[in-house]
Amino acid sequence: MTQATARAYPNIALVKYWGKANEDLILPAAGSMSMTLDDFATTTTVTLDETDSFSLNGAEQGEAGASRVIAFLDLVRNFARTAGLDTADQNARVVSVNEGPTAAGMASSASGFAALAVAASSAYGLELSIRDLSRLARRGSGSASRSLVDRFAVWHAGDDQSSYAEEIPAPDMAMIAVPVATGQKAVSSRKGMVATATTSPFYPAWVTSTEEILKEMIGACKDSDFTLVGEIAETHAMRMHAVIAASRPSIRYLSPTSLEVFDRIAQLRADGIETYGTADAGPNVFAITRPEHAEVVSERLRDLTKDGEAKVLRPGRGAHLVGD
Ligand code: 2P0
After folding, report:
1. Which CATH architecture has domain 174-313?
2. Rounded CA gap, 9 and 38, in Å?
3. Ligand 1, atom 9: nearest CA belongs to which residue?
4. 165, 185, 242, 261: least CB-packed within 10 angstroms?
5. Distance in Å, CA 17 to ligand 1 centroid
6. Atom of ligand 1 nearest to the CA of 190
7. How far apart, in whole angstroms, are the C-alpha atoms of residue 313 and residue 248?
């Protein structure tokens, strides 16, 4: 096959990834855990071609915009070479469409590299397991390793072989996206992680406490203890924003409106509607609740959103070839 199309969804971490042990191989300093979403998909087609090129949301990307995608294709070609495939010397055209906002904390790099890993490996003729696809996607963007997995994923810290994501059982839940801004963020995750690791005095404690809280989270998921899952998720998100804020110069991703959303979530809890919050490297917040409360939580958070829409999201499918 010389052309393949794949579809992948973003994931939202309940135990966050923030910091690398190895920059080249994108090995995380600690493990993490996430829910794969069922909306905001990326659909990517890879076609073997005369030259490498990348189109995103209908716009042809120049050298800078295409560099990470082309570096990823080089990686896939290396694997094809090792596997003795004669596709290894061919270039490729990558056409990608995001249904969610790009680079605004909606995890588009996760769905983007997960879809690219599946489509490119197939177009180049590689037959990879989900585990190896997760390892490959990791090389594009760390969090992409988790978007290979259905529903709920743990991404293991480790070496190149052992750092992949796999599915874990978890209590059924819904997430409500609360977009408060969709502009490009001020500091990319990649740069923000380096700044945190090199200048935040709390970083060592962040890494060790993340490993501990991940074990607790996996136990809570196994016990289907929604309350503990929610409490851990909100605490861990706040710890991430705290360790980031302690960088020098300070970095802040949350906006005043984000904090209002967290206050509203606390009010929902006080009203007996069990809800927790999380936010990534941007101002948008995700509320976590039991499925039966999803609509009322969406209703109660809607007025704080940018466009008056707080979408209900459910656990979704891992990255897959279209047609599978
Ligand atoms: C996460 N984030 O666990 C955390 C929480 C953002 C905040 O994973 O450098 O785009 O490509 O590995 O995967 C964003 O980081 O960074 C991220 P790279 P990535 O979802």
Report:
1. 2-Layer Sandwich (3.30)
2. 6
3. 190
4. 242
5. 6
6. 9
7. 36
CA of residue 289 relative to chain centroid, distance: 19
Atom of ligand 1 nearest to the CA of 142: 12
Give 281 Cα–ligand 1 centroid separation in angstroms: 8
Q: Distance between alpha carbon 252 and the CA centroid of its chain, in Å?
A: 19
ipTM: 0.98
What separation in Å is there between the alpha carbon of 302 and the centre of ligand 1?
A: 26
- For the CA of 140, the closest atom of ligand 1 is 11
State the amino acid at position 14 in one-letter form: L
The pTM for the full model equals 0.96
For ligand 1, atom 20, name the residue with the nearest CA.
13
Residue-wise pLDDT tens for the chain (324 aa)?
599 999 999 999 999 999 999 999 999 999 999 999 999 999 999 999 999 999 999 999 999 989 999 999 999 999 999 999 999 999 999 999 999 765 444 657 999 999 999 999 999 999 999 999 999 999 999 999 999 999 999 999 999 999 999 999 999 999 999 999 766 567 999 999 999 999 999 999 999 999 999 999 999 999 999 999 999 999 999 999 999 999 999 999 999 999 999 999 999 999 999 999 999 999 999 999 999 999 999 999 999 999 899 999 999 999 999 976
The angle that helices 63-82 and 130-140 make with each other, rounded to 10 degrees, is 150
CATH code for 3-170? 3.30.230.10
Nearest CA to ligand 1 atom 7: 280
174-313 has the same fold as 3-170? no
Pocket test for ligand 1, best of 32, 163, 189 (most atoms within 8 A of CB): 189
Domain ranges in the chain are: 3-170, 174-313
Task: Look at residues 87, 90, 148, 86 and name the one whose alpha carbon lies nearest to residue 116.
Answer: 148
